[in-house]
Amino acid sequence: ASGMAAISGTLFGLCDSGDHIVSSNTVYGGTYALLHDFLPAKAGITTSLVEITDLAAVEAAIRPNTKVLYAESIANPTLRVANIPALAELAHRHGLKLVIDNTFSPLVLSPKQLGADIVVHSLTKFIGGASDHIAGAICADKEFILRLMDLHELFGKIAAQAVLAVILALVFVALTVWVGENRGLFVFNTI
To answer: Reduced to 3 states, what is the DSSP secondary structure of residue 26?
Structure first.
């Protein structure tokens, strides 16, 4: 019921053993471990990690068995920004699903409007506001979410207390994002 559960559930919902993922080489550490270590060893799903801002490298990494193009809208921890419209065009041209982790940019970017097929969030960070609960979300079409219903037993459900905490924190998401942006601007302008 965490952000990693949202990512894992999404990838297990899209891929089978023998499938391939093209992913940004700059992702959250848990995501890197999932893609680089766990999925190949335990599920037979391989990943090519590439510089996501180099569209030629991304396209060159696509194989006949590639099913997913995965990136973070704003990468953790490098803050590298993915060109979501260009990635969406590339993914869709090759028949791939574009999955975007939008944890670092709620209210700033809308990956779905930019062409992403599925958007995942760790609700623990900006949306939750204080990292005082663990939760994740998958934003996708109804058909995909219904296909995942059996997986929620495997990856867990969000505890009722965490749901309440997220609902209460939603009121402050805009403020949380605004404070984060202004801190970044302050550091940028003082360096």
So the answer is: coil
